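Because showing beats explaining, we let one protein speak, sequence and backbone structure tokens together, and leave readers to judge.
___
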Amino acid sequence: QRQLVESGGGLVQPGGSLRLSCVASGFNSDLYVVAWFRQAPGKEREGVACISSSGGSIFYADSVKGRFTISRDNSKNTVYLQMNSLKPEDTAVYSCAGGIHYYCNEHADVWGQGTLVTVPA
């Protein structure tokens, strides 16, 4: 059973930082791609960042470039999203998604349940 479990969300003041974690299990391989998505109330889910299995290819949404950093530690089966300079518009439920042949879209093999990030105005 392949699973992704997010953690690290919480309430942060504007300008603050959080690090989200996405722990993978059941893949029996390091060869999986992971993306972070977010969905705010009343808005469509949007892709935030994506990282290849080796970490050699990374993509960010324009809205988070320069503020967020995606990384992975395959020895820990974990993908991270370091979130700096947080803004109220970053408030959303953040979910990770992954797959072996995954192209950073919504067609993922596995989705996590999400973790809430709240940045008050």
